[in-house]
Amino acid sequence: MSALQKGPDEAAGGERRAPLLELRQVSVRYPVGGRRRLTAVDAVDLRVHEGETLGIIGESGSGKSTIARAVLGLAPVSSGKLLWQGEDVSGFDRAQRREFVQAVQMVFQDPHSALDPRRTIAQSVREPLDVMRRGVRGSRQEVAMQALADVGLTAEIAGRYPHQLSGGQKQRANIARALVTRPRLLICDESVAALDVALQAEILNLLQDLKVNYQLTIMFISHDLSVVAHLADRMNVVYLGQVVEDATTTSMVDQPRHPYSEALLSAQPHVNLHEETNRIVLTGDIPSPLDPPPGCRFHTRCQHAIDRCATTTPELTEALPDHWAACLRTEELYGLTGRAKELI
Amino acid sequence: MTATPTSSRPKVAAPLLEVEDLSLSFRSGSGEARVLHDVSFSVGSGEIVGLVGESGSGKTVTSLALAGLLDPRTAVTSGNATLNGEPLLGRGSANRSDLPLAMIFQEPMTALDPVFTIGSQLMETLTHRQGKSRKEAKREALVLLEQVGISDPRARLASYPHQLSGGMRQRVMIAIALACAPRLLIADEPTTAVDVTIQAQLLELIKRLSVERDMSVLFITHDLGVVAETCDRMITMYAGRIVEQGEVEQVLSKPRHPYTAGLLAALPSPETRGRTLAAIPGRVPPPTQVVTGCVFAERCDHRADECGEPQDLAGSTHQVRCVRSAELTLIGAQRLEVGR
Amino acid sequence: MRVLRVVGTSLLTAVPTLILATFIVFFMQRLIPGDPAVALAGEYATPERLAEIRADLGLDQPMLVQYWDWIRNAFTGNLGASFLSGQPVTEQILSRLPLTLLLTLFALIVAVVIGLPTGVWAAQNAESRLDRFLTTSATLGLAMPNFWLGMMLIIVFSMGLGLFPGPGGPSLQDDPAEALRGLVLPAMALGLVGGAEICRQVRSAMIENLGADYVRTHRAKALPESRIVWLHALKNSSLPFATIIGLQVSRLIGSAVVVEAVFGLPGLGSLVVDATNQRDYAVIQGVVLVAAVVVLFTNTLVDISYRLLDPRIS
Ligand SMILES: Nc1ncnc2c1ncn2[C@@H]1O[C@H](COP(=O)(O)OP(=O)(O)OP(=O)(O)O)[C@@H](O)[C@H]1O
Ligand SMILES: Nc1ncnc2c1ncn2[C@@H]1O[C@H](COP(=O)(O)OP(=O)(O)OP(=O)(O)O)[C@@H](O)[C@H]1O
Ligand code: SF4
Ligand SMILES: [Mg+2]
Ligand SMILES: [Mg+2]
After folding, report:
1. What is the DSSP secondary-structure string of B192-247?
2. What is the pLDDT of residues A263-293, one digit of tens each?
3. CA angle, residues B70, B74, B78, in degrees to nearest 5
4. How many C-beta atoms lie closer than 10 Å to residue B333's C-beta?
5. Rg of chain C over CA atoms, in angstroms?
6. Are A231 and A208 in contact (CB under 8 A)?
7. Residue B80 Cα, ligand 5 centroid: separation in angstroms?
8. How far apart are CA A193 and CA A65, in angstroms?
9. Could you tell me the pTM of the whole model?
């Protein structure tokens, strides 16, 4: 990184504590037939600060879940570093590893398939503790029941099997299971995508409450912009395995500095119609990550692309205070305050 | 990349689709479950009507009943439905090929036949429904693919579904639907499985085709934002009953049923950040539960004694099934400066 | 081009399989109690005489050497000579192979003709009375042993009605027409059981496909139901169908041994039964090799058909 392209932290005034979790130039490559590799995550820098909710948004296949899996050690990280409270995870000894594993928990998208149909809800929720053999059995049961109560499930429901629960109740149970190890970081991968608006609202409210009660830091992955914008303090927009924009939610929503984020924001259908509904409709599909476009990966669909975009790779640069975008033309297009369309 | 000015289209008088008192039950070993209760609505010619509601409210079964796709061995329908004067219900699957009706579905991954080419699936529709020769069918197929915005249609004819992206598959589905020369297109959550950027493309396409071909669309979705931006009128369903219907504009800005208002209030957005969303507590009553009064009463904040009485769908253009609607002031969306 | 590559790779993988199969048989048959030399010379032969015979047959060599000699010759088409008659094994097999192949082919035709339509009908009318009748029949069919079915057929159609010749007809070379007629009942005995299996597999594959989303799409565009069932759903069911056909061929060849014995047919089956009784290793090995080749060849065909039938397999 050049002097101009520092990470958001250094820019935001040096003294801040190390982020709870930090990804430094992390790449994940999956082997796909023959000698080919699919770069699902490409040199991603990402920081989650204690107490913050970080939203990660992007189209299908952009690598959101892979980022989460890389954090949990479930994806083959081929280069880069994972730092937990400033310390390199790869250098952890057994005790530290164990602590890390308990401190980072994940809630998956599908509330139905994530629970074992042959176990009661209480058994499923207790499972992470059983696996880690934490405490005596009775106390594990107590912890599980407490977690279930905290997510709003009664003891009666705890004795039921998954098929006897509604979608929202199942997702609550999944969250309870993630909570029993008293995690510090909760990763939610599309955790409300399968739910109706009403249930979605309940789960979003629940997450917000838990964040306070359990002092959680949340990494919230979703393709739904309105959900992320509702919940997250900060947003990272990913495109084809790269972070293209990183800003606080307010800054991102009010003044996106990358044409892709702008298009995503404008594509979001809204019940509150505003005067300016000048929608940007992107043409074409997201290109294959097996063969990503050179230069700026977005140039094949970008309405502002110029020749240089196909050859030069843009890096995350500070476009506004604490607002980072990876576009060669940010300043030219958006100036320091205005929006792109005022220029064209 | 085009900007869409929100257009206002002329409203047409004679309804194309008329549904009257459509009821539906599913028979099973353990008895009958009634999933639709006297559903009545109409769709005007060239009109896009949104059908919204939570999962299990009966949106899909309504469309399947109209399209004759329910299994007659288990589904019992009653009531009336006509398309352009032709009855829709109770005709066997045999003689539906001359009905100007087509349907597209939610899952573009599985809705196309995986072992036949796009071309053959498109062309067989044309040869079977419109009696075209193979040569004509091929020419027409190319035109249709072009119309739905598939680039290099000639090469795509020989592609198999798995070789296309989700968005392209949905375009092909639309092309196949157009091959039925429909006056009414039933679209069941056509954009739920695709990304927002692709959704925006598909919505544009459906709106454009509706105007160009004077085609009506019954647009099923659970996304009120999509309804707001796509539809002329909307119908809210709850537990197999229509609880509200009217112009999108009116319903969203001044909802008259607490359920519609509840759905609106539950929507997250950048503006709701840091706030608690207004969830709708409770669950949709299962189809086996017999309800005499308002079906929504159990979950409604405005419940009163009179809600226990049977409720009618009342009103002329903006209809609502709620006795208390006149006395309630419900909060709708802030439809600032709208122009559809 | 794609097909050529498939054939190439299938053949390449077939060679090790063949070697392994023959290797196993080569060593397994040594485990059958009894000594070929004794079988040949009689219980009371002198030890010297036995040693002489063993040397003659090459049985005094280490097993691996014996195997190597045999496999080397087999590649040139020479499967050695029968221990007992001294006749070349290749010749013996070739004279009996056509009958067994014909029997298997007929049985397969019977199985498909019975299993495919009944499977489709059962699926189309799933849970109806017709379906229950067909699936019950199929279950019964599967439970019936081939030899018993063969005897029943002989009793009813040959001895009772006199429609078909009974056991012990002429050979294919002597009177082809009569020999073919003689194959009808054994083919039925073999094929009915296969038909029951095909019926069940086709039924479950078709039920799954008829409930699939793409079928709903075809119905939504008002394609004739017959076309949806017999063209679209059937083609989509063809993978399990091809698999079951491949399995059936191996099974039919195995069962042919029994059925040939019941009907007294001079096929590979009776050859191998006789050879086993007399510890005629050379013949057993030869027949096993040929059967393995037939089975592998069928599997290659099945593999190729997968790729032709399902574009998603590349
Ligand atoms: N195990 C794997 N092997 C090979 N490729 C994989 C594997 N897992 C994911 N990928 C590929 O990596 C890319 C990123 O996938 P990922 O699941 O992270 O995307 P995502 O952003 O979570 O998408 P979605 O919104 O659909 O969940 C995709 O192109 C995907 O096909
Ligand atoms: N074939 C069937 N047999 C029995 N019950 C059925 C059948 N199909 C649907 N149902 C029931 O009918 C009711 C309405 O289902 P429907 O699929 O129409 O809901 P929907 O509004 O489309 O929901 P979603 O948003 O989840 O698609 C549900 O209670 C469902 O369980
Ligand atoms: S770098 Fe070029 S192509 Fe990429 S987003 Fe900026 S303007 Fe568009
Ligand atoms: Mg994902
Ligand atoms: Mg549905």
Report:
1. TTS-HHHHHHHHHHHHHHHHHTT-EEEEE-S-HHHHHHH-SEEEEEETTEEEEEEE
2. 999 999 988 765 555 788 888 888 888 889 9
3. 70
4. 22
5. 24
6. yes
7. 22
8. 13
9. 0.87
Rg (CA), chain A: 21
Assign A186 to helix, strand or coil: strand
What pLDDT sits at residue A343? 44
Q: For residue A90, with 0-12 CB atoms within 10 Å meaning exposed, 13-18 middle and 19 or more buried, which class applies?
A: exposed
Name chain B's partners: 3 or more CB pairs within 8 A: A, C
Between the CA of residue B323 and those of B52, B174, B304, what are the distances in Å?
21, 41, 10
Identity of the residue numbered A127:
E
Split at pLDDT 50, 70, 90, the class of C314 is: low
d(CA A78, CA A29): 6
CATH 2.115.10.20 fits C99-272, yes or no: no
Contact indicator for A186, A178 with CB cutoff of 8 Å: yes
Sheet of strand B86-87: strand arrangement: B31-44, B15-28, B75-83, B86-87
B112 secondary structure, DSSP code: S
- In whole angstroms, what is the distance from residue C173 CA to residue B211 CA? 76
Q: Report the distance separating Cα A94 and Cα A98, nearest Å.
A: 6
Q: Is the CB of B246 under 6 A from ligand 2?
A: no
3-class DSSP state of A319: strand
Q: What percent of chain A has pLDDT over 70?
A: 91
Give the C-alpha separation, B310 to B294, whole Å: 6
DSSP one-letter string for A22-82: EEEEEEEEEE-STT-EEEEEEEEEEEE-TT-EEEEE--TTSSHHHHHHHHTT-S-EEEEEE
Count of Cβ atoms closer than 10 Å to residue B298 Cβ: 16
Confidence at A36, pLDDT banded by 50, 70, 90 = confident
Q: Which amino acid is at A214?
A: Y
- How far, in whole angstroms, is CA C123 from its chain's centroid? 27
Q: Does C225 touch chain B (CB under 8 A)?
A: yes
> For ligand 3, which residues put their CB under 6 angstroms from it?
A 258-259, 296, 298-299, 302, 304-305, 309, 314, 327-329
- Render B252-303 in DSSP notation, one character per residue: HHS--SHHHHHHHHT---GGGTTSPP----S-PPPTTS---S-TTGGG-TT-
From CA A133, how far away is CA A131, in angstroms rounded? 5
Least CB–CB distance from B336: residue in A249, A274, A280: A274
Q: How many CB atoms lie within 10 A of CB A287?
A: 17
Contact A310, A228 (CB under 8 A): no
Asked whether the ipTM of the predicted complex exceeds the cut of 0.90, the reply is no
Give the number of residues written for chain B.
Answer: 340
Q: State the burial class of residue A176 (Cβ atoms within 10 Å of its Cβ: 0-12, 13-18, 19+).
A: buried
Q: Which two tokens stand for residue A296?
A: 């700026």
| Rounded Cα–Cα distance for residues C217 and C206 (Å) | 16
Short-list B246, B248, B170, B183, CA closest to B209: B183
Q: Which residues of C touch B162 (CB under 8 A)?
A: 311-312
Going edge to edge, which strands form the sheet with B101-104?
Answer: B101-104, B184-188, B216-220, B48-52, B233-238, B241-247, B319-320
Distance (Å, whole) CA A84 – CA A94:
15
**What is the bridge-based pairing of β-strands A323-325 and A242-248?**
antiparallel
Instruction: Identify the weakest region by mean pLDDT among B146-150, B235-239, B302-306, C170-174.
Output: C170-174
Supply the DSSP symbol for B115. Answer: T
**Structure token digits, residue C309:** 């039938």
Largest Cα span, chain A: 67
Q: Are A171 and A195 in contact (CB under 8 A)?
A: yes
What burial letters (b/e) apply to C168-206, b meaning 16+ CB within 10 Å?
Answer: ebebbeeeeeebeebbbbbbbbbbbbbbbbbbbbbbbbb
Q: If we measure between CA atoms, which residue out of A36, A39, A28, A30 comes closest to residue A289?
A: A39
CA distance A209 to chain B (A): 9
Is residue A19 within 8 A of residue A10, CB to CB? The reply is no
Structure tokens given for C204: 């479950």
